[in-house]
Amino acid sequence: MRLMLALALTVLMSAAACAQEPPVTGAPGASLKQLAGSPTLVTVVLKAKGAKDANLRVQEVRSKEFTVLTEKGEQFTYFYEDVQEVRVQGGKVEKSPLQLPKSTALRPEDQKIVDRDWERIREIFGRSNENQERKLRAAVLLCLHKDADAQKYLNDLVASNDIQMRLEVALAMYLVGEKPADTLLREGLESGNRIVRTKAAVLSGYVGYRDSIPMLKLQIEDRSAELSAPAARSLARLGDREIIPKLIEMLSESDERRYKAAIFSLARLGGDDIIEQMKLQLKQNPESQILFRIGTLLHQMGDPMGSKILQDIMATVPTLQPEAALILAREKNWEATAFLRNRMARRENPTPENLLFRARNAASLYLGGEPTALAVFQELLRTDNAKLKQLVCELVTEINDRRLLTLIQSSIENADDGMALDACEAAVSLAMPDFQRRLVESRS
């Protein structure tokens, strides 16, 4: 009898072990249930030979398995017993309180704005024959609206013998949700043209082309940031953790493209090991710039020490105080919010640098729950500064709140087609969540 009970207990324990959820790493305290339905990207590490599947989003968690969604929209199921761990790539479970769910219909007044938006894009597309870059951007937006003329235009460009042009079109079509042929990516990565190799490297990361990893690892070692920075970001998107030592090395470099790529890539890879290595770096008494980068990274990865470092920098390093405040105000940090409010109320010379900071200031305050920042966006959109208006439209896309559609409505009618297209693109992103996600990703 005792033997039978022991055997039964063993079977029950075995079954329980099989049904136990795999550990979630890279974000302290995170669980599969928290990941379910969020936009957080994860890497699933399988027990069999440590195989890794990157850039997935957890959709549903059940008693013995969970489902994920790939970047192509394909759904797969993993059984707990086959999974070693689930790594949170960005260091924290993303929450977008202002983001509306896909199924939420536009309000009638917003639908009118979007309907006019499509008309305006069509107008810009039709008269941009002398500006191929603008025509290409307009064509991409129209493809989202199933426009036959725009699709034909892109198909004609894809048929070109110019590989650089074909890659530019492939990058554009990524925003529509289409994946390029592997042969094109391979040809681009093997090209002797640095611009072509860079475009192929970027695209490989976006679409999960894992065969690019060996070539990207050569590019990340290149002394030029033009090649090494995009290679680092793509390898991180592909979940290659072997580049972590190289990324830590890049974190302390002076080239802005390289150290920003390192911050992005380390946060994207995530993991307790990276957090621990960053804390070890702190013990070496780094200079304030390096300290700020480490604090930014730890903050992005959800480690409390990141916020503490940024708060200390705000209090002790005047030159870095504005940048630290922009990060912390989004989290409703009182000191950072007060600093940005005071900076916003202060009269400053309308230099391009000050105006661009004013736009970023408004975005951080808005994300921190201050709707009065809308008035600042309206003020900036009334200027004649094209770069400033473009930044405001990019920030509107990042914030991803449909209430901002009315804010950019007048800009859609701007007489300058370039400025109008920036606003049109932002409006489409607010109406189409999948496009918004890819657009934001393409800018990171």
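The above is record 1. Record 2 follows with the same two-line structure.
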Amino acid sequence: MKSIKLVLMLFCFITTVSAADKQVLVLKKVTKNVWSIVGPLTDRNKENSGNNATFGFVVTDDGVVLIDSGGSLKGAKALHKIIKTVSKKPIRYVINSGGQDHRWFGNDYFSSLGAKIISSEAAKKDHKARSASQWSMLETRLGKEGIKGTKEKFADILFKDDYKFTLGKVKFEIYFRGQAHTPGDAFIWLPQSKVMFTGDIVYTERMLGVGEQSNSKSWLHVFNSMAGFKPKHLVPGHGSPTTLDKAIKDTGSYLSFLRNTISLFIESGGGAHEISRINQTCFKYLNNYESLKGRNALKVYTELEWE
């Protein structure tokens, strides 16, 4: 894919909400009326309330649209607290970009405030299929107190492929193009400001995870579909607001590398037990490299065998 050379000027604002929130969540302005809330690149824990991801929101004349609702009730409240430092307008819609817990476990809180929840049909199916395992994992990592009050809430508005709406003269376009990190990952496009919210289709600064719920072949296709919009501003699912070039480097190129390198490895007779021979050091600069490189390689190896 031809890289697009862009210079993205980001005006960053750090909000002081409380000592704990300041350490965990960072508010960053993307462009006029468009904001991101950047969580840590680490795993879920009590300190981040499951918010180890990047979220976003758009302020319109008629209310706020939130991208992803947080990893727990406490996580949702932490996001809302930050949003209110920018706008006191009501949150009218919450878009779940995918299937991971931090994309939808805060739905019930925002729904109780009157927001309508939007997701792809595939994401809702994934939410139902994995909610029990996600709940168990969160209880282990956040503790019972950390998930207290968190309730399951699925989307009110579902779409199969595309969904478009306008709020306060701001146009929102949501596209589902197939399985990526999770089966229902969608990207959210703001055509007027050329802002792209990618959810877990894009990881920057930290290594992506190819898990059991992922499909690397489809993920690469979805990534290329998203990149075809040529966004001026890109908000990843993990990492700070960035450029398309950075997204290509940290996600697109890594997925291509894995599939191409492991395909050649299989053709040369390499076995799964030898997967550690795959040299991934060109991506060593990414956070979580040591813990994820082996798992990613083995999962892609398994995919390619079946393909």
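The CA atoms of residues 103 and 240 lie 17 Å apart.
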